[in-house]
Structure formats: C-alpha cells, structure tokens
Amino acid sequence: xxxxxxxxxxxxxxxxxxxxxxxxxxFSRLLASASAVTLGAIAAPxxxxxxAAGTTIENTVSVSYSVGTVGQDDVSxxxxxxxxxxxxxxxxxxxxxxxxxxxTAVVTxxxxxxxxxxxxxxxxxxxxxxxDDFDVGAFTYYVDNESSGTQGILDGADTLLSTFTLxxxxxxxxxxxxxxxxxxxxTVVTDDExxxxxxxxxxxxxxDALTGVLTSGQANxxxxxxxxxxxxxxxxxxxxxxxxxxxxxxxxAASLTVTKSSRPVSDPVNGTTNPKMIPGAVVEYCIAVENAxxxxxxxxxxxxxxxxxDLVFVPGSILVDGTIVGGDPTDCDTDGSxxxxxxxxxVTGSLSDIxxxxxxxxxFRATIDPS
Length: 371
Hints:
The protein is 8% helix and 43% strand.
C-alpha cells in the first residue's frame, strides 16, 4: 500500500488528532492484517509461472508537505529489485499399459510441465523401479508433435530426443513425452508388472546445471537468484529441481487351452447310424483351441498331431479355422476351410490369430486299420 500524505494536517500528530486514538488503533490493526495476508501469500507455493524471472520491478514513493502554510518541494525515493527465478517442474501420467511376453517398443505416456517463471531445459531419465516382477529393456524418448500426427499416440510425426533433453521449455508449457522400452522379456506371465519411473530435472537452457541456487541460510542477493520450489515426486525429494512419476506395464499373455476328442462317423456294419469304433470305421478328430477371456491375442498357432500306425489318414479331410458348437470344445462344427497337410506321420495345420475369449478348430478324419 502507498499512502500519499498531503497538506498541513499530514503530520503524525495532526493525523492522530484527526482520526482519534481508537481510529489509529483500528488503522494499525488493518495494516497488521494486510501484512499477515501478504506474508501468507508469499509463503504458499506457487502453481503457475507468474512474473518472469529477471524482470526489474521499480516503484517510487513521493511525499508532499508544507511548512506552515507554505508548500515545500516533494521528496521521493525509488526502490528497484530483480524478480528471482523459481524452478518448479511436474511430471504426470504414466498410466497402465498392457503388454505381451516378448513384445518390443512398448510405450507409456507422461506429461512434463514447466511451472517455473523462466524458460528451462529438462533432462529426462527413465528407470526400472525395484521390487516389481520384471524389468523392461533400454529406453528412448519422444515428444508428441502437436501440429501433426495423432495427438497422444506415438507415430512417425513425433520427435526423437536423441540427447534425452527437452530444450527450451517455456514457462507454463506442457509437453507429452513418450517413453519407449525396447523389450518385454518372453518369460513373463499374465498379471506380471513392471514399474517405470520418469524423472525430469531442470537445467539451464544450454543444458548445464542450474546456477545461483538459493540454499538454506543463503542470503538474498541483488542479482537474479534461483529458488527450487518443486514438490516431492515418485522417487525424488522436494526442492531438488526435479520431479518424477511412475508408469506401469502389466502383462496380458495369451492363455490357450486345447481339447482333443474323437467320434465315429461311420463303420462297415452300421454305416452312419449309431456307428461304433470297429476296424474299418471312420473316426473324426476334433481339436479345439481356446484363448481365455482377458488374454492377449495368440498368433502363429500351429498344430501337429502324431497319427498312430493303427489309423489310416483320410486324404483331404483336414479343416482349419472352424468353430465349436454351443461352447462345447468336444463338439467341432465342420465349418472350417480346407488346409493343413499329412506327411505320413503327422497331421499339421495352422490356425489364424485367436483373440481373447475366442476359439478355433482343426478337424481331420482317419480310418481304423481293418487289416
């Protein structure tokens, strides 16, 4: 507050007479309250950039007065100070990402916000957290290109950070960072988890460590000082010029079950009416492969069935990619497509991808050796 005192009644004695003792007390209490509010506001951490670091703030006080009835020249004084640099960064995001055993280039997404009142660089560092089920491979970093490509999804329009550094992030600017892990081990199983922590550490705009940092017990200087105002993150502490957040990779592996059953199709005595498993009977094999609900899609599925010597393969009888009837894996429909092969010992065939909760079948026929 600036108060301009004018005229012959502006002396403290006259002001006290004018306001009265009680009014002076009330005036003092108001000033004290205003000071307390101001101090409270300064003590609370700022969540936005605010006035830019390095800004020079100057203001002047002017006092008018009189001697008797004669006005005198005003007296004034000017105060100037430089706004210090407040360093504050937040890392958020790191949602749960579903991965499969052996998957490569798995992505988790974070947002880095420069809540400082100055443009800064930020060094990125991702690491596997301890105590989880597995670790993922080496990390690379990309920044989402907001002017092209698909927003929030890693694509060819996004920028690879070869130096692992966000350059010249302006005050209050937020960028989306994709952390890409090279590989998921092939040995993981469903519900295994890996936690990855991304840390963003503030740097000068040339990439050097921060300068002019005020530490406990260090006096304020006339130059632009640096104050670390960040809160504690996932693995870093408060007021360290950095912040961290965690993302989780959860494994969803394919969970396949196979059911093999057989039924007589015909025999030399009964024909197709209530046939029995007697020499010369034709037997139909039903092989059903099911993938459990909530699992990853299974691909590259190949079946190999060793046909015993007592059976004679029926040429052209293999059907692949059929379905089961009414959810019963022992009852194959004959809706598959011709395929597969027989090499004199093994019946083999490939199935298309099986998504979670789905099934596919391979059906073939053989004759019980009558000789």
